[in-house]
Amino acid sequence: MKHVVVQSISSIILYVLMAFLFSSFLSDVSKTVIESDRFLVEFNLLPLLLLIVFGIVWTVYSFNTRPNKQLSFAQWSVRMTEFSEVDEREQIITAKATKAAYVSFGISVPIFMGSFMFYPLFEDTLPAYPIYALASTLIIATLVYMTTWIRGYQH
Amino acid sequence: MPLVNRVKELRARHQLTQGDLAEQVGVTRQTIISLEKGSYTPSLMLAMHIARVFKEPVESIFTIEEETK
């Protein structure tokens, strides 16, 4: 269970950092200065550095604590790290949690789609809203997956 | 119709810990705990593995509660 909790929280941190990076990039690009013969762009490197550092630490930790030690790095890297399917019971719990996360997409995505109708009203104050909305759908699905998995495991 | 089982009783008789049994049948200890509590219904394959460890027929270890009444 600890594995699923740690990996789910790590994924959420990763989504937040990615949203921070892309929103920062969007903000920087909008400040781009186009002069007659030059194109000047300034980037805030902090979100990128945070993402790289977290990504390295997370990759090393996750690979070393993977439930199935027989998986090579190539095999492991294309899988979702939140999945823990060591035996048949965990496979059932993972299937239920994945189903719950899928259902959460069916609810959260239409809500966020609806909220985009009002985006022009607050575009100036929150220009990166679409990025955070997308990140939120992933975060909600991950939280639903994690809580369903914990409930199934403790049952 | 819940499935009841004699895994806890047989495990004690064979002097096996939950970890020992889990290792022999290839599942986690948590699965054995859930199975003994009756909150998890095992697959036919797992039930047959358990029956093989205890050298008893599957139907003598796992029974549907209605049949036992």
From TrEMBL, chain A:
The chain crosses the membrane at residues 12-33, 45-63, 100-122, 128-150. Keywords: Membrane, Transmembrane, Transmembrane helix. It comes from the Bacteria. The keyword Transmembrane applies. This is DUF2178 domain-containing protein. It comes from Exiguobacterium aestuarii.
TrEMBL record, chain B:
SUPFAM superfamilies: lambda repressor-like DNA-binding domains. The keyword Magnesium does not apply. Keywords: DNA-binding. InterPro entries: Cro/C1-type_HTH (IPR001387), Lambda_DNA-bd_dom_sf (IPR010982). Residues 7-61 form the HTH cro/C1-type domain. It comes from the Bacteria. This is Helix-turn-helix transcriptional regulator.
